[in-house]
Amino acid sequence: MDREGGIRRRISRGMIPVLALHVGTEYYRLRRKPPVTAGLILANTLIYLRPGTLDRILPTIDEVWFNPHLIVKYGDLKRFFLSAFYHMSESHLVYNMMSLLWKGIQLETSMGSVEFTSMLAALLTLSQGITLLLAKSLLLFFDYETAYYNQFAVGFSGVLFAMKVVLNSESDDLTSLNGLLIPARHAAWAELILIQLFVPGVSFLGHLGGILAGLLYLKLRRSYSGPDPLAALMRHTAAVVSWPVKFLRSLIGWPTRRISGRGTVGSRRPVQRVYDVWRCAACTYDNSALADVCEMCGTERLGNGFTAPMLSNGNVELSLEEVRRRRLERFGR
Hints:
The protein is mainly alpha-helical and 333 residues long. It has helices at 15-29, 35-49, 54-57, 61-64, 68-74, 77-82, 90-111, 113-142, 145-149, 157-167, 187-198, 204-223, 229-252, 320-331; strands spanning 174-177, 180-183, 277-279, 286-288. Strands 1-2 form a two-stranded antiparallel sheet. The chain has a two-stranded antiparallel sheet with strand order 3-4. It has two domains: 3-223, Rhomboid-like (Rhomboid-like fold); 258-331, no CATH class.
């Protein structure tokens, strides 16, 4: 959203508690909780509310407006990156975060948190960069200085448009947009036009930059067959940072309790402590002892053991045919 809509005083209308309730409800029903999406929603909300010490630490919105003229003139990277995480009003924040919740759950669950984080970093950089390039090009070729080059804008909308492009890139379905049935892969373009027509004060270049960023990201990923270098770097960094903790755990024999998440599927390591972790006989998923039903395939656990007699090494005595049948049932879904 751009500055032309005016900077209004922040008055809570009760929309943020509704957002929190909706996010909590969605995450409660999910078997796998996408942490990056939740962290982004929390970060954007805290930046908007600026509680306590954050109000003194965080830059003000006047210091982070996305303004092409100031970014180019002073090389202001703070405006380039931070403007996406600021919002002008409670409704602006809640609308964007609801959209982020829906798109983030689908993308992070399918891609994994590391790949999802890498994609978000790329989309943020590309969308802001393309928006800046478009504004500068309009100034050079059409002298649109007042309309776009000196425009002030904030909000996560550009990244959300890019996420929509990525999410619908392989879809052949139809989607409804204000009652209009259109191909899902073209939904971002239709939404760009409708928002520009009916919502005053929005940043057309910011939204357009997001769509182009999503298309460019898809083209780059399809043309590059190797692993995502940023995701690989993040994995290696996480491994190095977590190594001391894993080493200490191995020394003191501190078990890892898994309440939610992906767990391990098909692991050959025997379960040593049944009251901490139990292994499903059907799909070999290691479940928390707090769960009575396998989080992966739904096979029930009876008492302190499994649905079949337990051997001394922590595995389960099932016929080969029964194990084969259950695994085919699990992976055939």
